[in-house]
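Supplementary notes for students who missed Thursday's class. We covered one full example, reproduced here. Read the sequence, then the structure, then the short commentary at the end.
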Amino acid sequence: MKNRSSRSLIALSASAIALPGIAKADAPPFNSSLSYKISNYQEDDLTREQVPFGELERYDIDVHQFQFVSPLGSDYALFIDANHENMSGASPWFSTAGNDGQPVINMSGASGIYDSRSEIAIGARYYGATGNVGGAIGYSEENDYRAKYVRMSGSRNFNNDLSTLTMSLSHSDDAIFPSDAERFNRVRDKNKRTSSVAVSWSQILNPVASFQMALSLTDQSGYLSDPYKLQDSRPNNKNQIAFSNSLRYYFIDMEGALQGEYRYYRDDFGINSHTLDVSWFQNVTKSLKIVPMLRYYTQSAADFYTNIDDFLKPLSENQSSDYRLSAFGAVSGGLSFVADFGGWAATLTAERYVANAKYSSFAVNQPSPGLVQFTRLSLGVNYTF
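Structure (token representation):
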């Protein structure tokens, strides 16, 4: 009864932490580097008020990330990324009305979930005088899900390298084959396709400030329902659009930089969301930086979301009690320590995330009892040689 939350975790934990700087002419890396990062993602247990019977423990995920980067001649670079994660715990299976008429959760079972996922991607990039272009192919597999993907991107510098236009394309073909399909009469074999295009413009405003805006369009088609939920039926197509703006400003006297980002998102399911990120990058010594972060997120509910499953409703009609499709808000904060010792660098990060319907800026007509609170810890090491 698992979900795809771990993929979002990979994307989140892979974000780089670096002081904003001035862009340089495109060039491949001068040295090879090897990076390793380990993260633990732990969701808070539910309460007996939320789950009258069964498991209270939610997901516990360990993520291992590896990257190797090496120059190839004077104009090319090789990139190899590998990820492995182990997952255990339980997830919401379906929702019913409690004795007081309020929604309660039925979890995935006493045995919970034990699974692992492995992923590898190989790519190369060419660096020219005014830009770069590259691509990668990747493969991901777990015991009930398989994905093959390709991505390409290119950047072009203008105005003496003060302006940069970047475009990217990606496509993924996924196969879904639930491990307990026969036992629970689930779908046996389904497919999903995802295609995305993104464009961004980066502008150096002056020696201490830079600005970036980005637009992305994503189309998903095929089987988009969650096969591990008892009553879950979603449309077979979803178009998504996201627009973001970010500003970075370096305060010379304080030896620190402020970064702010706003992101707007909407999709065909009826979800609209706003995200606001603020980070401060503080130089403590020549080799140590401290980075506090604060994020606010809010979204509206999907058109077909319900917090109490209707088992009399045919699966041909769209319905889902997935908490990720409900209206809610979330606040998260984190702190990172970044140490650079020449050939070696290390980053230690701690983050706390709390979701609640009362934090939402949108109307919450059906609050979900399954919203997540989690803690994430990560340690990354990079060696350049």
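Commentary. The longest strand covers residues 190-206. DSSP finds two helices and 18 strands in the chain. If anything here is unclear, bring it to office hours.
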